[in-house]
Amino acid sequence: MDFQDYPIPSGIHAIPSHLLDTRPDSEVDHDLLHPRPVSDEKNIWFFWHSGFTHMHPYTQRNVRAWHRRFSKQGWTIRVLDRLPSSPLNVANFLDISDPGIFPRAFVDGTIGGDYAPQHTSDLVRWPLLLKFGGVYADVGLMQIGDLDRLWNQTVGNPASRFEILTYNAGSVKERSLTNYFLCSGRNNPLFARCHKLFLELWAADGGKTSTEGMHASPLLKGIPLLGQGDSLAFEEGGKKFEAEEVSKMLSDYITQGQVMTMVMGLIDKEDNWDGPKYVAEHIYAMDYMAGSQLINVFTAWNGPKAFELMSLSLPKAGKQESEDQKRAREIVEGCLQKSFGFKLAHGMILRVMGDTLGSLWRRHDGSDDVPGTYAHWLRHGTKYWTQDEVPTALDSRVIEPYKRGPLLRAE
Q1: Which Pfam families does the entry link to (predicted)?
Q2: pTM score, two decimals?
Q3: Partner residues linked to 341 by β-bridges
Q4: pLDDT in tens, 40-58
C-alpha cells in the first residue's frame, strides 16, 4: 500500500486499520473477480460491459477504494459485465430472458446509439436493487463519506423512515435524483414503478434500441427537460446545436432520471401510489453539488483547470504554497470535509462542456495517482480516512404532482 504523510483536514479521522483491506492491489482484484454469493442487502453493484480487468485504470482505483473501505464492514463489491464466460455476467444474477426485467434490445445485444454502454448499464441498476438491495454506483464515482454508517442510520435500519439514499440535483422544491448512486433495500416501491415505466418506454414503437426521442413520450408529459434555461448550446463538426435541442438530447441521455422524476411526481389512485408523499417521507436525498460535484463547483466546471490543479505537487517542506497550490488544497480539503462522493463526469457532458477531470485522467493514464500530488492526496483520503459526521439530507417536503393518473397510461 502507498503511504504519504498528508495532512488530515479538520472534521476527518483515520479509519482504524482493522476496518481496512490493506492488501496489495492484486489480492484485492482477486476478491473483486471472485466475490462471495449474495447473502444479504449489503451489496455494492457496479457494471462495466467488458469486465473489471478491462476498465480504465483510474476507475479500477475507484472500485478498489470502495472494497478497501467497506468490505471488512460486511459489504461485497461486484463489477458485473456481459462477457459470455464471466462468473460476473449479469445473466448469472438476473433472468435476462424475462421481458419484465429487460427490454428486447438488452437481450439481443442490439442497444445502439452514441451511448450504448451507458444505457446498457442503466438497465441493470433497478433490477439488481429490486432483487438484491444495496448500492448501485457508477465506476466513475469516488466514495468519500462513510457509507456504512449512513446505511446503518437509514436504509439498513428497520426503525428508520428512510428507504432510499441518493443525491438530488434540484432544490428542496424539486425532485431530480441522480442515477450514479442509488441505494435501497429489496423490492423498493419507488424503484419498482420506475422500472415498469422505463421498460414501457423501451417497448414503445415495437421496441426501442436506444433512448433517442424518449423525452417526447406521452408517458413523460409534463416533466421539464433537463438543462432548460441554461446556456447549453455547442458546436460540433461544424454544426451548431441550439440550447433547446441540447436539452432534448440531455433528457434522452438521462431518461432514467426523467423516469424517476415522473414517478416521484405521480399520484396514481388506481395503484395506491402517492409519489410526492413517498419522497417527503422515505428518501434521504443529499445535495448533489456539494455532495458529489464539489471539484466542479470550485473550478466552474472547467475540466482542464481541475486537471491542472489536481496534478500539481504539494509544496516542499518549508516552501510557501502558490496561489494555484492554495486552490488545489482548498479543493481536496473541501471534498474530504463536505462531500459524500465525487462523480467523475463522462458521456454526453463531454460534448456540451468539453473535457472533464475524468476524461483527462482517462487520457493521461496514471495522472490521478502520482504520489505527492493533490490528486493522490484526495485518493489517499478516500482510502484511509472518513468524516466525523454523516451528511445531512435536504428538507423533506411534499411538492405538487406532475401527473394524476395511471403510471403506464398517458392522460
Answers
A1: Caps_synth
A2: 0.96
A3: 143
A4: 999 999 999 999 999 999 9
* pLDDT mean over 128-145: 98
> Does pLDDT of 120 surpass 80?
yes
β-bridge partners, 45:
78, 136
Between CA 8 and CA 222 the distance in angstroms is 47
Alpha-carbon span 238 to 248, nearest angstrom? 20
Contact 231, 240 (CB under 8 A): no
Give the integer Cα–Cα distance in Å for 48 and 61: 14
The pLDDT tens digits for 275-297 are 999 999 999 999 999 999 999 99
For residues 333 and 279, is the Cβ–Cβ distance under 8 A?
Answer: no
End-to-end CA distance of the chain: 58
* Amino acid sitting at position 47: F
Burial class from Cβ neighbours inside 10 Å (0-12, 13-18, 19+) for residue 109 reads exposed
Other beta carbons less than 10 A from residue 218's beta carbon: 10
CA–CA gap between residue 157 and residue 183 (Å, rounded): 13
